[in-house]
Amino acid sequence: MHIAIKNVKEADCACEVLILPFVEEASNPYVRLKPSVSKLIGKIRKKEFKSNLNEVLLVPAPDDIRPERILFLGLGKKDAVTAEKIRQTGGKAFSYLRDMEMKKTALSTLVFGQLKQSPVHLIEGALLGLYTYKKYKKENNAKTISSLALITIPSKDLSLSIRKMEVIASSVAFAKDLVNAPANDMTPTDLADAACSLKRKNLSVKVFEKKDIQKIGMGAFLAVSHGSKELPKFIVAEYRGSRKPPVVLIGKSITFDSGGLSLKPSDGMEKMKYDMAGGAAVLGVIKAAAELKLPVHLICLLPATENLPGGSAIKPGDVVRSISGKTIEIANTDAEGRLAVADAIEYAKRFKPRAIIDIATLTGACAFAFGGEVAAMMGNDRKLLDEFRKAGEETYERVWELPLFDEYKEYLKSDIADIRNIGNRIGSLMASAYFLYEFAGQSPWVHIDIAGTAWVEKDRPYVPKGASGIGVRLILNLIERVQ
Ligand code: BES
Ligand code: ZN
Ligand code: ZN
Question: Which residues have C-beta under 5 Å from ligand 2, the single-atom ion?
């Protein structure tokens, strides 16, 4: 969708549909449009249209204006309007218009004179909500909106923030495409190729092969890959937008998690292609950071492998040695993410980072506890945790902090090795994070568990069902706070 700012009168804007947003019980912001439009608005607001949040009503426009139709769009009660609600209305309006096969659209911004929020959030919701994944459909009847005219006075600031939203939305779409891809087309090798496709002047990508991973000594990560014929890849992407020490982003990248010999039930196993959503998110972040030339030094680490129960697979009870030298008893091969991420955390320390952030679909317990509404967050750095909470509120990719009490250490005691990869069933969300904490030590670190939020079962106003792309907007916002 091509977006242009146009300084024209609404009535003179040639388009198939003119979008007029309304807040409940507020005065009509469109009184200065043609009398015919005012008359129509008066009539329709009496009965058909209440300005409820996300309400849409498409009507033919009066003959004496250039737009062919008018879309009434409800923003809800004036005092209750938030950036998130505006995003939702953007998602709702534009996916509706796309389904109605509209191509040329225009948006009046007059109502924003009555509000504190910017119309850019409406565009953000529109761009995010228009995402579709049709790669494997023969019938790819691509209904697409071709243009949006934003009717307002042009300014450099506004153009820049629209451009920024476009970059962010395309980076979210990039991440979603990786997650939505079936696991046979998103192997560790495919994921490494996708990372390499991001290479540009200021963004370099290195892929460590199995023998390199062996040499570095990532015995925990490597162990996960033994049950699969697909070769593991340790992907390192670096963007140098500043000379400061880096922020290291680690994304869990299990391209398919069958559970290994601790096999998962077949019901729902097909969804375990999304066990690389953390890796996809960090690639989305670095793509956007490089395109926006953010002043930050970023390093992304993606330990990518399948977790399958092949003949050489790790067995429950096996002991492996992590890069840190710590030995790990693998009591359950389905708790594989923490093995891969732990080695990556230890590796991250080599860069003397300002912060280590890992994002992972780590535990079913996270999904049980929080559903799809919020990600779990744990860490050892108060400032980072606080900034993450604010970033979560602002982007509405919300995070909720859980404790890392010393007592959780007990949960992971092994009789045979330095640590066990699971505790008992109880407290498994905290135990999984505590396991990672044992590797992060005193390095500033935050862990985000997105098991419940990385996949959406039912369409949301600006998140179509499937991969949610969570983490891209959250971490970009966080980076801007701490840079
Ligand atoms: N990838 C899963 C976690 C997961 C579950 C993500 C559901 C998304 C939806 C992870 O590797 C896993 O299987 N964790 C186990 C850990 C258990 C064996 C301690 C779990 O949560 O059941
Ligand atoms: Zn697992
Ligand atoms: Zn997993």
Answer: 257, 334, 336
